[in-house]
Amino acid sequence: xxxxxxxCGAVRFTVEGDLSPPTACHCTxxxxxxGHYEAGTDVPRSAVTVENxxxxxxxxxxxxxxxxxxxxxxxxxxxxPIHVDRIGIFMGAFDTPTNTSLAMHIFxxxxxxxxxxxxxxxxxxx
Length: 126
Fold this sequence. Notes:
With about 130 residues, this protein is mainly beta. The protein is about 5% helix and about 35% strand.
């Protein structure tokens, strides 16, 4: 089991089972939502339990995706593709070791100009 929370602890969650290798997304929306690029893992919805869901707020960033954050401290937590049986969880929200390693970078064509990707992982332009 993996545990996580927002910065202030108002939103807490647990994930049953292993985490998939995370990807780093450099798209403009992820950069705007997190303040930098986003690293996240995808898990089945049924594996996630959220405590204090009343402080979890959802922003619909498109017709297909909503993004979850804490309404108290503003921590970015979830990437939720609507109508898909999985949810993305931002790696920085985990409190316990994840036993994962970054697998790849996506949307690198949109990355910020203030950093370089030098880790030699696969990079998808979109």
